[in-house]
């Protein structure tokens, strides 16, 4: 995998010239609309980037966008890849390696998640302080290239403390209900059973989702400071768990989108 990076960078550089992004953004659920605020300078379809996997989920379009946001140079992944879609961990995280090689100094990630904690409700926002990886694989499995990071990377403080505090302050000022959370990563694509939600709460999780952790592990392998934000789309703590449908999850995510977008824009502007 490491040997593919140089080819991909050469190809991207031919198209974007000397544009050097300061920040990378993975536009997961809840941040889709952020693209409207980006002054786009270049965009490349994943399908036209050598060694990039192709996004399969219909509501993701699969583009790498280069431009400015709040006057800062960014690269944004429109279309994130999930393990449940069948990609390998290396495929899911390859774009993070590429964004780092292009020059990013910080990574911003968003996702949708279900709540495990009765104090955290549908429509609220979670700022990740930690995670529990329940995925059955790890993007760092296999030979390690010491040029990119340590064999045994430290994970004692995964999510950047300063950016967490800045985001909590922004959210507070804007009047959004926001929580500092532990995110549990699961494969999906099914949602959890009642017993699984209960288990994830008992082991220390506040929210659960199907993404983010692979990309974050790879970013931390390369010592990139990371910020991650979740939109809470459903509640998995009720005794009488109601069926949740994807349209319902997407509706809550869409309604909360402006909140995530404004937090992220302000946060990026102050880095
Ligand atoms: N579980 C797992 N992933 C999710 C959920 C959930 O309840 N909601 C949104 N993504």
* Total domain count: 1
Strand content: 15-25%
| Count of distinct strands | 9
| Overall pLDDT metric | 93
Radius of gyration: 18 Å
CATH topology: Rossmann fold
Poorly predicted tracts of residues: none
Shape descriptor reads globular
Level-2 CATH architecture: 3-Layer(aba) Sandwich
Report the total helices: 6
Q: Which sequence of strands runs across the widest sheet?
A: 5-8-7-6-9
Helix/strand-derived category reads alpha/beta
Text of the CATH class: Alpha Beta
Q: How much helicity do the residues have? A: 25-40%
Order of helices and strands: HEEEEHEEHEHEHEH
Within CATH, the superfamily carries the name: Nucleoside phosphorylase domain
Bound molecules: hypoxanthine
Biggest pleated-sheet summary: 5 strands, mixed, barrel
What separation lies between the terminal Cα atoms? 31 Å
Explain what the structure shows.
The chain is α/β, with parallel strands linked by helices. The chain has a single domain (2-270), classed as Nucleoside phosphorylase domain (Rossmann fold). Helix content is 31%, strand content 24%. It contains 6 helices and 9 strands, in the order H-E-E-E-E-H-E-E-H-E-H-E-H-E-H. Strands 5-8-7-6-9 form a 5-stranded mixed barrel, surrounded by 4 helices. The longest helix is centred in the last third of the chain and has 24 residues, at 246-269. The mean pLDDT is 93. Hypoxanthine binds next to strand 5, strand 8 and strand 9. Residues 112-114, 186, 188, 191-192, 208-210, 233-234, 236, 249 line the site of hypoxanthine (HPA).
């Amino acid at each position: 995998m490491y040997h593919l990076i140089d080819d991909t960078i050469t190809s991207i550089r031919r198209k974007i010239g000397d544009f050097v992004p300061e920040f990378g953004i993975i536009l997961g659920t809840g941040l889709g609309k952020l693209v409207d605020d980006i002054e786009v300078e270049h965009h490349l379809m994943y399908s036209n980037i050598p060694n990039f996997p192709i996004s399969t989920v219909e509501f993701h379009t699969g583009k790498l966008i280069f431009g400015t946001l709040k006057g800062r140079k960014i690269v944004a992944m429109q279309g994130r890849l999930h393990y449940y879609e069948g990609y390998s961990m290396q495929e899911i995280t390859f774009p993070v390696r590429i964004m780092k090689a292009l020059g990013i100094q910080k990574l911003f990630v968003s996702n949708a998640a279900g709540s495990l904690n009765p104090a955290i409700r549908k429509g609220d926002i979670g700022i990740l302080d930690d995670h529990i990886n329940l995925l059955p694989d790890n993007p760092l499995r296999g030979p390690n290239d010491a040029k990119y990071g340590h064999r045994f990377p430290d994970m004692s403080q995964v999510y950047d403390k300063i950016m967490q505090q800045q985001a909590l302050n922004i959210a507070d000022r804007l009047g959004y209900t926001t929580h500092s959370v532990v995110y549990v990563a699961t494969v999906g694509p099914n949602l959890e059973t009642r017993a699984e939600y209960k288990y994830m709460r008992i082991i220390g999780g506040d929210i659960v989702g199907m993404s983010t952790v692979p990309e974050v592990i790879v970013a931390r392998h390369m010592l990139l400071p990371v910020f991650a934000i979740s939109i809470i789309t459903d509640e998995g703590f009720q005794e009488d768990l109601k069926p949740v449908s994807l349209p319902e999850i997407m509706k809550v995510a869409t309604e909360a989108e402006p909140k995530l977008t404004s937090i992220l824009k302000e946060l990026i502007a102050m880095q």
